[in-house]
């Protein structure tokens, strides 16, 4: 069993893949130096008799007995499929129920514990979550089991505790296992399952200050771009057929979450992209373009400045047409497969980075952006069979 068990069983949920990465990883590493220390971490509360008992037993296991231990994921256990159970530890059976963003269910815990309790083993059940305090589900499950005459050994562990353990052990393990442990630590960090470790003086150096200034300068120039394009529009040139999708300052930016919590996952703390978005007034003749836009996007994290067209859902046959015509016009099409044979469509022209030939880092002038807007606008009209309104060309003053 390995770290891709979730994929092998066609489990696509993030929680299942997290389980597979962590416990699949533990199963393929040296059990003496990784799995046993992990179990010792789970059972290190010596104030609890069953945990102390197992902890001391693990500490004196022979190499032969250690190598017999098995980590199993989603294997049938009576009528249940617990996330993880760790078996062949003499009379002990360790069951782990993994939660990432879902709430613990006391009924699930009770059902899994009852199935495990049918075996002639000492059961130690661990609920692994990123809650900041012990979930009520543990208390409720224990109470339910008590009414059935079962004095349950159910314990709560935080993902943060596992992160601390990975942080401590990974530098001590060499070669492949050590690298894998470091990757698992990074995985938990990416999922918001780490803890405060200090503030580095390096984050306050000149390079960081310059980066912040550059982001501010970029945003300012995008604001000026909006104003400049509005002036062209007022001059009765082709841009009078493009309307700005209103937003404060005319510039959209990727959402920076409010009231960010430490356990929030995969959230940007700094906006990674900025958008200026327009709609062609001619599109009002086509309902399938209601959600569409022509955009100018700056993506600092990818060193990319792009002019393009985006639409939400497009029939598959329309995608085939767009793909061909985009290629014929030197545009780079991008698709995201959606349900029911529909696609999210993005067709773009990169002015900086990406497919751009701009390798000399020259400045992009207003006329360059207007030229690409024209190309994308005319491309879109052609694809959707929209006749051009008689008008002047865009001003090329830059």
* Global geometry: elongated
The oligomeric status of these chains comes to: single chain
The number of helices is 12
Helical content class:
25-40%
Beta-strand residue fraction: 15-25%
Structural class of the secondary elements? alpha+beta
Question: Terminal Cα separation, in Å?
Answer: 62 Å
One letter per element, helices H and strands E, the order comes to HHHHHEEEHEHEHHHEEEEEHEEH
Mean pLDDT: 83
- The stretches of 5 or more residues where confidence is low (pLDDT under 50) are 392-398
Cα-atom radius of gyration: 29 Å
How many beta-strand elements? 12
Largest sheet: 7 strands, antiparallel
How many domains make up the 3D coordinates?
Answer: 2
Q: Would you kindly provide a written description of the structure presented here, covering whatever features stand out?
A:
It is a single chain. The chain is of the alpha+beta class. The chain is 40% helix and 20% strand. The protein is built from 12 helices and 12 strands. Strands 6, 7, 8, 9, 10, 11 and 12 form a 7-stranded antiparallel beta sheet that branches. Strands 1-2-3-4-5 form a 5-stranded mixed beta sheet, with helices on both faces. α7 (136-147) links the parallel β4 (122-129) and β5. α2 packs antiparallel against α9.
């Amino acid at each position: 069993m390995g770290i891709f068990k979730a994929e092998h069983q066609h489990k696509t949920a993030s929680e299942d893949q997290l389980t597979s990465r962590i416990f699949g990883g533990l199963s393929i590493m040296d059990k003496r130096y990784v799995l046993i220390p992990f179990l010792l971490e789970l059972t290190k509360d010596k104030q609890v008799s069953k945990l102390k008992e197992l902890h001391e037993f693990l500490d004196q296991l022979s190499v032969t007995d250690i190598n017999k231990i098995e980590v199993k994921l989603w294997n049938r256990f009576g009528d249940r499929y617990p996330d993880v159970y760790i078996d062949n530890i003499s009379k002990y059976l360790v069951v782990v129920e993994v939660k990432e963003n879902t709430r613990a269910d006391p009924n699930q815990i009770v059902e899994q514990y009852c199935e495990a309790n049918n075996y002639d083993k000492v059961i130690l059940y661990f609920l692994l979550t990123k809650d900041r305090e012990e979930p009520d589900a543990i208390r409720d499950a224990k109470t339910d089991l008590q009414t059935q005459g079962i004095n349950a050994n159910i314990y709560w562990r935080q993902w943060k505790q596992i992160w601390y353990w990975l942080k401590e052990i990974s530098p001590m393990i060499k070669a492949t296992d050590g690298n894998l442990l470091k990757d698992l630590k990074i995985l938990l960090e990416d999922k918001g399952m780490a803890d405060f470790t200090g503030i580095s003086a390096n984050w306050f150096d000149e390079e960081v200050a310059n980066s912040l200034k550059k982001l501010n300068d970029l945003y300012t120039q995008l604001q000026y771009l909006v104003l400049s394009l509005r002036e062209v529009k007022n001059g009765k040139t082709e841009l009078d057929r493009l309307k700005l999708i209103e937003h404060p300052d005319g510039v959209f930016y990727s959402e920076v979450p409010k009231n960010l919590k430490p356990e929030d996952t995969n959230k940007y703390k700094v906006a990674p992209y900025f958008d200026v978005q327009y709609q062609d007034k001619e599109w009002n003749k086509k309902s399938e373009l209601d959600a569409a836009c022509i955009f100018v996007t700056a993506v600092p994290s990818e060193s990319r400045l792009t002019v393009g067209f985006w639409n939400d859902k497009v029939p598959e046959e329309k995608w085939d047409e767009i793909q061909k015509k985009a290629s014929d016009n030197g545009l780079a099409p991008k698709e995201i497969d959606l349900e029911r044979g529909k696609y999210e469509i993005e067709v773009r022209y990169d002015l900086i980075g990406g497919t751009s030939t701009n390798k000399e880092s020259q400045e992009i002038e207003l006329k360059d952006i207007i030229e690409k807007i024209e190309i994308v606008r005319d491309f879109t009209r052609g694809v959707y069979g929209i006749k051009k309104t008689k008008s002047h060309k865009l001003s090329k003053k830059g």
